[in-house]
Specification:
This protein has one helix at residues 2-11; strands at residues 14-16, 19-33, 46-61, 64-77, 85-98, 101-114, 124-137, 143-158, 170-182, 188-200, 208-218, 225-238, 246-260, 263-276, 281-296, 301-314, 319-333, 338-351, 358-369. The protein is mainly beta. The chain has one domain: Maltoporin, Chain A (Beta Barrel). The chain has an 18-stranded antiparallel β-barrel. It is globular and about 55 Å long.
């Protein structure tokens, strides 16, 4: 909780006693999108702006904080006004410390217009409501315990043709237990267990259960070399009484970043199993991502980029998707923590099933704010 309070103080543009106010720009897309609908090639392009202005109001007291954030950003297409949409997210947070216990509660309500995904062909407007509660016991001690419970409610509105989006309307209940053990000054071992129930509104036959456990290590957060590695086991099963599925498999992930003078390098790998809520299939997800960057002129300029390659294997339908993407950013500093720049992004997904391949290319401005 203390880390979040420090973050609120550092980000605030205005303070009056215990009250902190932050105003921040939101720029998700600013430039030309060569394929606004993602499907097909060469596709249909347009000038796109997705941005706005957000605000955060916080009250800080000893052992307590209260915070609320409003983040509206308007999606605007120059030649396709029918695609314009107001995305927004509203959040509220409460943090409370009593003796060795940190209590945290949050509520968020977000609405967004999404591109086609690997599961869903059409463009959809999605809404997500989240209630989250957690208790962190003795977070400053070598051995600490965290318990998390959350409720997520998803709903979808169809915008273009394809699979019916409303079939994925659902409520998910998630419970996580994390045990952390500090073994060096800033290195920790982490053991976690998770349980999630997905209950569908319109089709109870899709109801599913997710269970997992993993053990990992987190390297120092303040160092030239930092990262994390974990390995675990996951089980997915149907809640149908008869004819349901049951699957078990290994999961793992790793992240490593290195800073050598003015050079930055990063490498990450992820292996996971998920239940596709749109096509009712178990999907193996593998992804490898490499990145690099360079600080120039006393870090007033930055040049950075990344390349990622992933594979999605749908077990029941034998469908295989390969996803590749890369991007390049050139940034220049405009404030102690803010950068403006230009970004080029490219993504191509190739599927073994017709109609699911897609291409995304964008070039335009970008805003990066460091915390």
């Amino acid at each position: 909780m203390e880390r979040e309070k420090i973050k609120i103080q550092n980000e605030a543009l205005w303070q009056k006693g215990s009250l902190y106010v932050r105003i921040f720009p939101i720029v998700k897309t600013l430039g030309y999108d060569f394929n606004i609908f993602s499907l097909g090639s060469p596709g249909e392009g347009d000038w796109v702006f997705d941005g706005g202005l957000g605000g955060r109001l916080s009250l800080l007291r000893p052992g307590f904080y209260l915070s609320s954030t409003f983040s509206p950003h308007y999606l605007i297409f120059l030649h396709h006004p029918q695609e314009n949409f107001l995305n927004r997210e509203i959040t509220g947070e409460i943090g409370l410390r009593i003796w060795k216990f940190n209590f945290y509660f949050s509520y968020s309500d977000s609405k967004e217009k999404a591109r086609p995904s690997f599961e869903l062909g059409p463009r959809v407007a999605s809404r997500r409501k989240t209630h989250l509660f957690s208790v962190d016991i003795s977070p400053e001690h070598p051995l600490s315990l965290e318990v998390v419970g959350r409720r997520d409610e998803y709903s979808y509105i169809q915008i273009s043709g394809g699979l019916p989006a409303f079939s994925a309307d659902r409520t998910e209940y998630t419970y996580i237990l994390r045990l952390r053990r500090r073994i060096f000054s800033a290195t920790r071992l982490v053991f976690s267990m998770g349980y999630r129930r997905s209950l569908f509104k319109w089709n109870e036959e899709r109801n599913a259960l997710h269970q997992w456990g993993e053990v990992g290590i987190i390297f120092p957060e303040i160092s030239r070399v930092k990262g994390s590695f974990s390995l675990g086991f996951k089980q997915l099963s149907s809640l149908k009484k008869e004819g349901g599925f049951r699957f078990q498999g290994l999961k793992g992930r790793g992240n490593l970043s290195v800073e050598l003078g003015t050079l930055l390098f990063s490498l990450s790998y992820n292996l996971d199993w998920i239940y596709s809520v749109f096509v009712a299939d178990v999907v193996r997800v593998k992804n490898l991502r490499a990145g690099g960057g360079m600080k120039l002129v006393r870090d007033n300029f930055r040049l950075q980029g990344w390349y990622s390659r992933g594979e999605l294997l749908f077990l029941f339908s034998s469908r295989i998707d390969e996803v590749r993407n890369y991007g390049v950013q050139f940034l220049f500093r405009v404030s102690p923590k803010g950068f403006l720049g230009v970004q080029y992004f490219w993504l191509r997904a190739t599927s073994s099933v017709g109609g699911w391949s897609r291409l995304i290319k964008t070039i335009g401005g970008v805003v990066v704010y460091e915390i």
